[in-house]
Amino acid sequence: MQEQDNIKEREIKLDWKRWLNYQSLVKQVPFFLFLAVLAVIYIYNGHYADKTIRNINRTAKEVKELQWEYKTVKSEVMFQSKQSELVKAVEPLGLKELTEAPVVLTAPSNSPKGGE
């Protein structure tokens, strides 16, 4: 019984040597190549994700800057479109603000309203 256990232990100890002979290594080359390709794809994916995150952050920053610019320009336009600012802007052109109500012009009508 003890001899059988010893034989099994020796077989287990010698089993790893089967994996290191030339034939078994050549057999495993495609699998190792597959693992290498997977590793390259994994590394590429990590770099691509980092690059994409950088682009997203840069675009978000640009959007914030454009929002600030939009708000600034909008406030300037709102300020310049106030009546007091319009009067100041058109004064050099010789235009003045009306002080009396505008006059409505109507054409004298000799024919009936039907048009014929």
SSE map:
Elements: H1 2-19, H2 22-80, H3 83-90
Describe this structure in words.
This protein has 116 residues and is an all-alpha fold. It has one domain (2-91). It is built from three helices and no strands. The protein is rod-shaped. The relative contact order is 0.03.
Tell me the distance between the termini: 129 Å
**Number of contiguous helices:** 3
Order of helices and strands: HHH
Helix-strand category: mainly alpha
* Rg measurement, Å: 44 Å
Number of domains: 1
Let me know the number of strands: 0
List the keywords.
116 residues; mainly alpha; single chain; 3 helices; 73% helix
Short summary:
The protein is mainly alpha-helical and 116 residues long.
